[in-house]
Request: fold
Amino acid sequence: MDSGSGSKPEESKHPGGRLEGPGAGRVAASASPATSPPAGPTATTEIALERSVERLADAAPRLALLPARERARLLRVVARRFHELSREMVELDCRAKRIPEHGPLSGEPMFDGPAIVLRYMAELARTFEGAERLSPGAVHSGSRTVVDILPRTTTERVLFPFWRAEARLDGEVPGREVTTGLHELVRAKGEVALVLGAGNVTSIGVVDALQQCFVHGRACVFKPSPANDYLGPLLELALAPLVARGWLAFAYGGREVGELLVTHPLVDCVHVTGALATHEAIVWGRPAERQARKTRGEPLLRKPVTSELGNVSPVLVVPGHYEDRELEHAAKSIVGTFVFNAGFNCNATKLVVTPRGWPLRQKLLDAMARVLEGVPPRFAYYPGAIEKYQRFSRAGGHLASFGAGDGRGVLPWALVTELDAARGEDVFQDEPFCAVLSEVAVGSGDPLEFLAEATAFVNDRVWGTLNAMLIVPSAVERDPTTAAALDRSIDALRYGSVCVNVWPAAAYGLGTLPWGGHPSNTLENVQSGLGWGHNALLLRHVEKTVLRAPLVPFPKPLWYPDHRTREGLARRFADFSAVPGPLSLTRLATTALRG
Reply:
């Protein structure tokens, strides 16, 4: 295996324990006083970009031929470095998002950043080591092949009690074709990939870059978004073993840098995470020419493109008999999935679909309002959020605000109810990436009628195919007739991830579940994107993943606003993913039980 240089960056440390490697000289420069936002690196020059891409192209064939066990070993080396730097990453994220570095909210950037990256690396390494072979009973076929993914081990039964996850494939798939064979990962031809990272969550771009390197065997240039490129120097330190070997390079800057990389002749393929508008500009060019290009089937960019572009994430509240505590848990789950990370998640709940005429509808909305009243407003750190907030909070329906803004970027939570399902409301077609949650009623209080109409409504009227969540009381799941209707709805929903009583962010974070838009998407109508990410088990022919849990869960989910140990739980989860064992598992389980 090529070492990239005479030194071994994965073993090199300062006497005080500080990691060395690319980016080391810039970390201190970004560590300004806690009251000021972290500064990002200066834009990469055109000359530096050219050198980086040429180096990647030269080194790519060696990466393509790297055996699976060497990939696993290198993943574990990188994971140790990532774990060591994880708290510094979280501190920078907290400063940028204006949340206390040692309060419950600091658990959010740990969970959606280092913890998810560390779990993905651990699961992928286990696959490369041959430890994650699917048992024969995990793959079963009827009208289609279904792969049971969670739980697979005793550890997962402890970590995720009562959760069940499966991947539904796109037909009857022979067993030998369910997963990518490890021998298939070794490619004779090396390629260079460009990953354009999203600016809201650290783990998105990092996992995408790791997937390009380790799963596809491509050298990768990773351009973080200007919204969170302040993490770049730390990420360079963490990923230094890949950088030193010429298999990963970082690029910084805005649109000009992105355009240079997208069109570079040595860049073979592109992965885009972020906004639909970014994807359309890259693939189809200026707005004036896009539709004509689509009609002719002539994209501006002729390279292979994969993407993850967000979603107007809906929650379908299935009617039926709800115990009082079930309704309270439904309210906490809906609100928690909305306010986490100040609402800046592609899988954050944005549209609640309730049954029209359901006697419990107002009771649920009142419970949601009570939960929102207890959640302090957050700083709207993401670019464009204030303008989106003003637009969507005034779009129609009935507006209720919770908390007070400060005129400096802190926005009240907004709940817009009673939208008209017959109208073309903006929120149905444009993701409100801000602190606005909307509600619309469809169907009726009959579970069968609601499931049929709500499924058609979100499939045909709501933009995006990334993820959908259903709130389902135990009475509906116990009844054979309504349970069968629920399964038909899950099967019919055109989403890459369909979750019952679980936030789809859990499907994103598990690492083993494929994550992406529904495969019915096309380049011309890309919706939430093309291709699958995460997918540490290397599954093929996936149509969607399904994750289920009881409506009244145990222990308390981390996304509940009243979770008491979120900060500690985030650290423990990251620690266990980096160094699994009885002690770290016990600490993690104990912290979870105290939530």
